[in-house]
TrEMBL record:
The keyword Transport applies. It comes from the Eukaryota. Residues 30-44 have a biased composition (Acidic residues). GO terms for cellular component: endoplasmic reticulum; membrane. Residues 52-89 have a biased composition (Low complexity). Residues 118-134 have a biased composition (Basic and acidic residues). This is Vacuolar amino acid transporter 2. Residues 193-581 form the Amino acid transporter transmembrane domain. It comes from Cytospora mali (Apple Valsa canker fungus). Residues 103-117 have a biased composition (Polar residues). It is a multi-pass membrane protein. Residues 1-134 are annotated as: Disordered.
Length: 596
C-alpha cells in the first residue's frame, strides 16, 4: 500500500510541469477544460466522505479481528478491494497536465469573466445568434512572445469585444466588485446588436468625413493619373490594415487597439499608439475649426449682404471671429459632456452633409463658367511633384482604424469573414464617393484647386452656401467627438484607473478646445492640415502599427513579408510627406496663406 501511495504521489508530481515546458496546444486545452476539471476535483472529496472505506469506517473491528483467519469470502472481498486500490486513477490525456493549485485561476478581466476563455464559453452559450461561427482565422498559426512566461502561447479568438458604450464604460467601474462588473457586463450583452447594414453605415460614416472635401486637392498635388492610382491602391491597403486590427486583437487577446500595441511592444508601444491617436484627433479638431471659418462667414454674408458694415454684428463676417464665437459657443459646451452617446445624432447629420456636399460639387462643377475654371499641364494630368503630400491627404480621409474594433463588436455574429465583408463594402463605397468628389472638383478647377474645394465656388452661390452651412454645422458637432478622444487618451495615459475628477475634466476639455481654436485661427490652408495630420498620425495608425503587430504575433509566411513592405512604405511616406508639408508651409508655396 505504501508503494502504491508513493507511485500515486510520484505520478501526481510528474503531472505538474513548469509553465515553460508545457506545450502551447496543451496549454489551450488546459484552459478549455478548466471548468470541467475543477468540477471533478471538487466532487472527489465529497465522494470520499459519503462512501468511506471499510478500514476507515471500522478501525476497532480491524484490530480485534487481526489474529483471526479470514474466510474465503473475506479473502475474495479483500482481493477485490486491493484491485480497486491498485487501479490506475483517472487521468487526463498525456499532453494535458492539470495543476490542482487553485492559484492558476486568473483574476477577472474588465468584462467581468475570469479569463477570455471563460468569456468565450459564456458568450457562445448565451444565444446562438451571438455565437461566433467558424472564421478564416481558425487555421492561422501565430506566435505570441510573452515575457512573463518566457514561451509561446496559443490564445483564443475573442468574441467579447464590445460596442462603443461598453468599451468606454469599462473604465468607469474602477475598483468595483466582481459581481457588479459581471452583472453590468451581462446586461450589456443583452443589448440589441447591429447587422451588416448598420455596421456598414457606421464604418462608411467614419471614413466619409471631413477628409472627402480635400480629395480634389490631393489630385492636384499628385496629378490626375497618379491620383487615381493612389486612391485605389491606398484603399486596398487601408482595407487590409483595418482587418488586421481585428486579427491582431484576436491573436493578442486584447480588446482594444491600444491594448494590442501595448501587448506587442510594451510601454513604448502604448506611448506610440496613444500619441498617434491623440495627434490624429487633435489634428481633426484643428481642421474642423478651419472649416468653420471657411464656411459660416460665407453663409452669413449671403443671408445678410450688408453684414460686414454693421457695427457689432460685422465681426460675424470675419473668419477669425466666427471661429472663436462658434467654437466657444457651440462646440465647447458639447465637449464638456462625459457621455459620448449624447452626441450620437451628429453622425446622421454628418452623413447627410456629405451627400449634400458631393451632389453640390458635381452639379455646380458642371455649371461653372469657363472663366472660373483652372488650367491643366502635363504634370497635373500625369505625375506631379506633391505625390507624397497627396498620400497624406488621402490617408487622413480613410483612417478609421480607431473605430474598427468598436464596429466589429457591434456585429450580431462577430467573425473575421463578416467583418471583412463590412470593411470591403464600406471602403469600396467610400472610394467611389471620394473618386467622384476628386474628379468633379479637380477637373473643374485644375491647378487652382484649393484645400477646401467649396472655397473655389463664388460666395453668392446659393446651392454652395447650403452645402457650406451643412458642412460648417457638421464640423461644430463633430469637433467635440475628437475632443472626447483626445481627453480619454490623456486621462488613460496620465491617470489610468483613477475615478472621475471634475477639475481634470474641465482643465483637459478647456485646454484642448482653446488650443485647437487658436491654431485654427492662425491656419488659413486646410490642405496643409490634411497633409501634416495624414503624414504623421494617419500613416502610423494605417500603415505602420497594424502590420508591425501582425509581424510580431504571427509566424513567418508570405503575409508577413507583405506586412513588412507596408511598414516600409508607411515609414517612407511619413518622413517624406512631413518634410515636404513643413517646407511648403515655411516657404509659403502653393498659396497656403490664403484666408477667406
Amino acid at each position: 500500500m505504501a508503494e502504491a501511495r508513493s507511485q500515486h504521489a510520484g505520478h501526481h508530481q510528474a503531472g505538474v510541469e513548469p509553465a515553460s515546458t508545457r506545450d502551447p496546444e496543451a496549454e489551450a486545452l488546459l484552459f478549455d477544460d478548466e471548468a470541467s476539471s475543477i468540477g471533478e476535483e471538487e466532487e472527489a472529496p465529497a465522494n470520499v466522505l459519503s462512501k468511506p472505506s471499510p478500514a476507515a469506517a471500522a478501525p476497532g473491528a480491524s484490530n480485534n479481528n487481526r489474529a483471526s483467519t479470514p474466510t474465503a469470502a473475506q479473502q475474495q472481498q479483500h482481493q477485490h478491494q486491493h484491485s480497486q486500490q491498485q487501479r490506475a486513477p483517472r487521468t487526463p490525456p498525456p499532453r494535458v497536465h492539470f495543476d490542482p493549485n487553485p492559484t492558476i485561476l486568473q483574476g477577472r478581466t474588465p468584462n467581468g469573466y475570469a479569463n477570455s476563455f471563460d468569456s468565450h464559453r459564456r458568450s457562445s452559450s448565451y444565444d446562438d445568434e451571438y455565437a461566433p461561427g467558424r472564421d478564416s482565422l481558425d487555421d492561422l498559426d501565430f506566435q505570441i512572445d510573452d515575457g512573463a512566461h518566457g514561451g509561446q502561447h496559443r490564445t483564443p479568438l475573442l468574441t467579447g469585444i464590445e460596442a462603443p458604450s461598453v468599451a468606454l464604460a469599462n473604465g468607469a467601474w474602477g475598483g468595483g466588485s466582481d459581481d457588479e462588473v459581471q452583472s453590468w457586463a451581462e446586461g450589456e450583452r443583452q443589448r440589441p446588436k447591429s447587422g451588416l447594414r448598420s455596421a456598414f453605415m457606421n464604418m462608411a460614416n467614419s471614413i466619409i468625413g471631413a477628409g472627402i472635401i480635400g480629395q480634389p486637392y490631393a489630385f492636384k498635388q499628385a496629378g490626375l493619373l497618379s491620383g487615381v492610382i493612389l486612391l485605389v491602391g491606398l484603399t486596398v491597403v487601408v482595407d487590409w490594415t483595418i482587418c488586421l486590427i481585428v486579427v491582431n486583437s484576436k491573436l493578442s487577446g486584447a480588446n482594444s487597439f491600444q491594448g494590442t500595441v501595448e501587448h506587442c511592444f510594451g510601454r513604448s508601444g502604448l506611448i506610440a499608439i496613444s500619441l498617434a491617436q491623440w495627434l490624429f484627433a487633435f489634428g481633426g479638431m484643428v481642421a474642423f475649426g478651419v472649416i468653420v471659418g471657411d464656411t459660416i462667414p460665407h453663409v452669413l454674408q449671403a443671408i445678410w449682404p450688408g453684414l460686414s458694415d454693421m457695427p457689432v454684428l460685422g465681426m460675424l463676417a470675419d473668419r477669425r471671429a466666427v471661429i472663436v464665437i462658434f467654437i466657444l459657443g457651440v462646440s465647447y459646451p458639447l465637449t464638456l459632456y462625459r457621455d459620448i452617446a449624447k452626441l450620437a445624432k451628429a453622425s446622421t447629420l454628418a452623413l447627410i452633409s456629405m451627400v449634400i456636399i458631393l451632389i453640390t460639387v458635381l452639379i455646380q462643377g458642371i455649371m461653372t463658367p469657363s472663366a472660373d475654371r483652372g488650367s491643366f499641364t502635363t504634370p497635373t494630368l500625369t505625375i506631379n511633384t506633391g505625390i507624397f503630400q497627396a498620400i497624406g491627404v488621402i490617408s487622413f480621409a480613410f483612417v478609421c482604424h480607431h473605430n474598427s474594433l468598436l464596429i466589429y463588436g457591434s456585429l450580431k455574429t462577430p467573425t473575421i469573414d463578416r467583418f471583412s465583408r463590412v470593411t470591403h463594402f464600406s471602403t469600396g463605397v467610400s472610394m467611389l464617393a471620394c473618386m467622384l468628389m476628386a474628379l468633379a472638383g479637380f477637373l473643374t478647377f485644375g491647378d487652382q484647386t484649393l484645400g477646401n474645394v467649396l472655397n473655389n465656388f463664388p460666395a453668392d452661390n446659393t446651392m454652395v452656401n447650403v452645402a457650406r452651412l451643412c458642412f460648417g454645422l457638421n464640423m461644430l458637432t463633430t469637433l467635440p467627438l475628437e475632443a472626447f478622444v483626445c481627453r480619454e487618451v490623456m486621462l488613460n495615459y496620465y491617470f489610468p484607473g483613477e475615478p472621475f475628477n471634475m477639475n481634470l475634466h474641465l482643465i483637459f476639455s478647456t485646454s484642448l478646445v482653446v488650443s485647437a481654436m487658436v491654431l485654427s485661427v492662425m491656419t488659413c490652408d486646410l490642405g496643409s492640415v490634411f497633409e501634416l495630420v495624414g503624414a504623421t498620425s494617419a500613416c502610423a495608425m494605417a500603415y505602420i502599427l497594424p502590420p508591425l503587430c501582425y509581424i510580431k504575433l504571427t509566424s513567418r509566411s508570405w503575409k508577413t513579408y507583405v506586412a513588412i513592405g507596408v511598414v516600409i512604405f508607411g515609414c517612407c511616406v511619413m518622413v517624406i510627406s512631413t518634410f515636404q508639408a513643413v517646407g511648403k508651409i515655411i516657404k509659403g508655396e502653393g498659396g497656403v496663406a490664403q484666408c477667406m
